């Protein structure tokens, strides 16, 4: 089943503000409230909408630092890749985990309260892991754009 222009409009609006009410969504898309409700249910059921979450300001919670970490594994066997991936995904300080091509095997986006907090993470995730050959860390100097929005108007999506 293809995602039509009305679905794309709903997806764009939901990516901007997922707590917007059905009436507001209906008004902005030109659809009825019932149609918006049906379409959102279908988008959720199909997996087009994976999750609806609150975006929290890290500084308000005392999480002042962000890091980009490139991780190179010692062995690239599938079981080793899967094991590191599971470990990274289970770590609350790892916001994003990507299995990538190139010089590194993984790219992680991590947060920490301070450098001591990050040092503890490196011990748990990298130094205590015999399959991590090396890791390179870049400290984020400033958050210029943060988001996971997809430009739904520009792509041909299918469900």
TrEMBL record:
Chain ranges of the HTH asnC-type domain: 3-64
Keyword ATP-binding recorded: no
UniProt xrefs under Pfam families: AsnC_trans_reg (PF01037), HTH_AsnC-type (PF13404)
Keywords: DNA-binding, Transcription, Transcription regulation
Example GO molecular function: sequence-specific DNA binding
GO cellular component: cytosol
GO BP field: response to amino acid
Name of the protein: Leucine-responsive regulatory protein
């Amino acid at each position: 089943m293809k995602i039509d222009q009305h679905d794309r409009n709903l997806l764009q609006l939901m990516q901007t503000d997922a707590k917007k009410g059905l009436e507001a969504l209906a008004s902005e898309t030109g659809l009825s409230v019932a149609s918006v409700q049906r379409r959102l249910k279908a988008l959720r059921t199909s997996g087009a909408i994976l999750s609806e979450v609150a975006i929290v300001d890290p500084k308000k919670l005392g999480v002042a630092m962000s890091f980009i970490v490139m991780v190179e594994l010692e062995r690239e066997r599938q079981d080793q890749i899967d094991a590191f991936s599971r470990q990274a995904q289970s770590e609350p300080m790892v916001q994003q985990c990507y299995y990538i091509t190139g010089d590194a095997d993984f790219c992680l986006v991590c947060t920490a309260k301070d450098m001591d907090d990050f040092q503890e993470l490196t011990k748990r995730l990298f130094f205590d892991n015999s399959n991590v050959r090396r890791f390179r860390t870049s400290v984020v100097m400033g958050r210029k754009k943060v988001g996971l929005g997809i430009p739904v108007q520009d792509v041909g999506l299918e469900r």
